[in-house]
Amino acid sequence: MKLTFRVLLGRILFGLAVFLVLAGVLIPYLWMVSGSFKTTLEIQSADVLKPELSPRWFPRKFTWENYLRVNRTVRMLDYFRNSIIISVGTMVFSVGISLFAAYALSRFTFSWKRMYTLAVLSTQMFPGISFLIPYFMMFVLIKHYLGLPMQNTYWGMIFTYTSFALPFSILMLRNFLDSIPREIDEQAQIDGCTPSGALFRVILPLAKPGIAAVGIYSFIMAWNEVLFATVLTGRETKTVALGLLEYITAQQARWAGMMAACILVSIPVLVLFSLMQRYIIEGLVAGATKG
User: Fold this and answer.
1) Cα separation of 29 and 39, whole Å?
2) For domain 72-289, is the CATH number 1.20.120.450?
3) pLDDT tens profile 270-290
4) To pair with 249 at 20 to 30 A between CA atoms, which of 5, 105, 192, 267?
5) Distance between CA 119 and CA 104 in Å, rounded?
6) How far is the CA of 128 from the CAs of 93, 123, 133, 165, in angstroms?
7) Whether the Cβ atoms of residue 30 and residue 53 lie closer than 8 Å to each other
8) How far apart are CA 286 and CA 173, in angstroms?
C-alpha cells in the first residue's frame, strides 16, 4: 500500500521528534560518561578557542582514577548505603499503604470517598518547599513531647518521603485497580475468600504492573530528592544527592570525580528500571487512561 504524502510527513516529523528527545536526554549523559574518564585538569583547562585544548568526546588521557578515588575525597559509599536504606524503606511503605488505600477507593463505597479523593488530589497543587518548615517544626515537636528523634534518622526521612509519594501512588494504583473487573472479586468471594483474601490471592497478582510503577516512582523520588534531605538529614544519614555536592568546595571543583560518582549513583535506578520496565509501562499506561 502506498503511503500518502501526509502520512509520510507525519512519520518523518514523529521520528524527528523522537530523535530530538533522545538526543536531549542521552547527549548530556554520554558527555558525563566521557568526563568520568578524563582528568580534572583536562576538563578545567578546556578552551574552545584553542584547538589543542578544545573539548573532546574521547579523553586525551584515559584514566580509571576517578572511579578508584570516588570514596576517598567524599564518603560516597556511606551516602550510598543511606540512600539505599531510605529509598527501599520509602518504596516498601508507599506500596503497602497505597495498595490498601487504592483498594478501598476502587472497591468500596463510603460517604466521604469523593472528599477524600479530592483531598489527596489537592496535595499535588502545592510546591514541596511549602512543607519544609511545617515538617521541621513537626519533627521538633515530636522530639520534644514524645522523645522520639526524627531529624537525622532513617525513619524520619522514610516517613517524609512516604508522605510525599503516597498521594500520586494512591491515585495511580486506584486507577489501575479500576481496570480490573469487579467480577473477579465477586467470584473469589463466592469461592470463600474474604475481601482481604480476594485482595491478596487474586487482585495482588493481577496488580503487579501497577505496584511496580508505584514502587519505582517512590524509589526514584526518594533517591533524587535534595531539598528535604538538606534540612532533615545530618552527617550520619546524608544521601547521595547531597554527597555529590561535596565535590564542589570553595577551594576547588572536582568535576571528573563528580561525574564518576554520578555514573555510579545512576546505576541502581537504571538497573531497577530495566528489570521492571515492562511492568512499569503497563502500570503507568493503565493508571493514566482508566478512572
Assistant:
1) 18
2) no
3) 888 787 777 667 655 654 444
4) 267
5) 15
6) 20, 10, 10, 11
7) no
8) 9
